[in-house]
Specification:
This protein is an alpha/beta fold. The chain contains 15 helices and 12 strands. The protein has a 7-stranded mixed β-sheet, sandwiched between helices. Strand 3, helix 7 and strand 4 form a beta-alpha-beta unit. Helix 3 runs antiparallel to helix 12 and helix 5 crosses helix 7. The protein is globular. The mean pLDDT is 95. The structure holds pyridoxal-5'-phosphate (PLP).
Length: 397
Amino acid sequence: MKMAKRIENLPPYLFVEISRKIAEKKAKGENVISFGIGDPDIPTPPHIIDRLCQAAHDPANHRYPQAAGLPELRKAIAEWYKRRFDVSLDADNEVLPLIGSKEGLAHIALCFIDPDDIALVPDPAYPPYSMGTILAGGTPYYMPLTEKNNFLPDLNAIPFHALKRAKLLWLNYPNNPTGAIADLDFFNQAVKFAQQHDLAICHDAPYTEVAFDDYQPVSFMQAEGAKQVAVEFHSLSKSYNMTGWRIGMVVGNAEMVSALKRVKSNLDSGIPQAIQYAAIEALTASQDCIQQHNAIYQRRRDLVIDMLNSIGLQAKSPKAALYVWAKVPEGYTSVSFADELLEKVGVVVTPGIGYGKSGDGYVRLSLTIPDAGLVKGLSRLAEWHKTRARPAIKKIT
Ligand SMILES: Cc1ncc(COP(=O)(O)O)c(C=O)c1O
């Protein structure tokens, strides 16, 4: 059997490796507390589930769905964008529902990237931006996100040789894994940059509804001229705790949306219709649940930040998204620190290097852990700090 070369270039997905380590510990009877994956622990609100169950009983929803999604869902998405961001979208040509945003994020590379093409990808970043590029035969050019630059890419630092071959520019705010945010000024600059260099922009925005301290994230589609060069990926996963149902969307530039629809209609058979009805309910019913969830995450964020700072780990309090991005203590890499926490106190954090080279030196803690586990996990971190045996610190070699 001979596998394709593209498989050799593809590292195993970050969380697969972490899940394997957790399973190993659990098999030994050890109790592990995970601040790993960003998967909301709070259930999907009941009104959304009720609509899903009702739709599941309707035989009309037992058949193949339409590739472009239900017209009612596209309309609900367009109206939600209008209410939430004052962005007008044509529901037929500028909106496409997705089987969760991840598949769209990965598949859009097939619309733009030929062998030898480049996609400009933030480092650190959610892995599908670069993996989609690699699977399409292209090459990611990594734009470092540094604390000095508030975890925004320095677009003017991208060298000409990379820009010449670049077709796509990836952005993601509120950001995973750093928790950073961007304002409309930055998005306006990015649109101008894309126009100057003939780039298409993919903005990934699943966390615009997870925000704290009265901060309201903006949409990339609010930037001047955004629709000429960009699409925005969004998702119901984090806004409504619907990761398990797999539903998201892409909106914006009609040509880009149409190209992705063409690829997808050849690859998948759409989103189960009962789930599309649940999504319509989520987008059109009362949005009170969002504030309720955010109050929970904000309280957890404060507990995590207080504990990290009290044990000498530097981490800024994020204004949005589900993550705390903490610096590892001196003498550790992100992997050696994550390994030590797992080995010594049974706490899982995600090593920053899993999101790219510039993520080394950091670990990510997700706030999607039930309160009791979170408190226990934090007290284990305090325990690690107390019993930290100086000679055991692994030096970087
Ligand atoms: C930045 C980012 N984009 C996209 C996704 C995927 O979301 P979905 O569940 O819609 O596939 C995630 C999930 O963690 C994410 O962090």
